[in-house]
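Researcher: We plan to redesign the surface later, but first we want a full-length starting point. Tokens attached.
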């Protein structure tokens, strides 16, 4: 599978744009670092420092350069204000699958940004990259994230017990998936 070497810019619905990370997105990293949950499930630094924020952004660039994935910033189209991120991780693309993850900072939640971004990246993965299967892993208590996945067309396939380390403990995860042959 021949994958692009850059994170593309693309619309996500009518009001959002997906784009690569930039150093002027540090305020997004800072807000995410103050969230009680985002740093537990991501590499967002907590506590935040300028140097750790820069390292976080540089890691996003490295993920694309190394071929492991495509981290997008979810930004408002009207003013480029960053709201969160969605990532497509392609290390299993040779086996016909890729994993997505997303988060939106608290000040931007409830606006449908994650769902629109997830739909846009999923369409790109199926149509542009020809990945046959996309999957997400969501903790059962996270009903907002489950609704986001379902609004984007993902189906819950099952419960993976003790699937992932989150903070100090192993946690169950729902697996959600979409396959390229399904109506999107």
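Model: Full-length starting sequence:
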């Amino acid at each position: 599978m021949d994958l692009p070497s850059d994170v593309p810019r693309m619309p996500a619905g009518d009001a959002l744009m997906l784009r690569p990370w930039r150093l002027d997105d540090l305020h997004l990293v800072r807000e995410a670092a103050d969230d009680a949950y985002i740093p537990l499930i991501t590499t967002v630094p907590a506590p935040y420092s300028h140097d750790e924020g820069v390292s976080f952004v540089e890691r996003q660039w490295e993920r694309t350069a190394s071929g492991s994935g495509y981290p997008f910033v979810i930004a408002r189209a009207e003013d480029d204000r960053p709201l969160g991120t969605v990532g497509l991780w392609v290390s299993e693309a040779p086996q016909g699958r890729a994993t997505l993850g997303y988060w939106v900072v608290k000040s931007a939640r409830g606006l449908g940004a994650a769902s629109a971004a997830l739909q846009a990246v999923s369409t790109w993965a199926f149509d542009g990259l020809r990945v046959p299967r996309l999957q997400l892993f969501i903790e059962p208590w996270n009903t907002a994230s489950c609704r986001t996945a379902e609004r984007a067309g993902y189906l819950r396939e099952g419960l993976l017990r003790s699937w992932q380390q989150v903070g100090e403990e192993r946690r169950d995860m729902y697996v959600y998936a979409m396959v390229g042959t399904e109506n999107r």
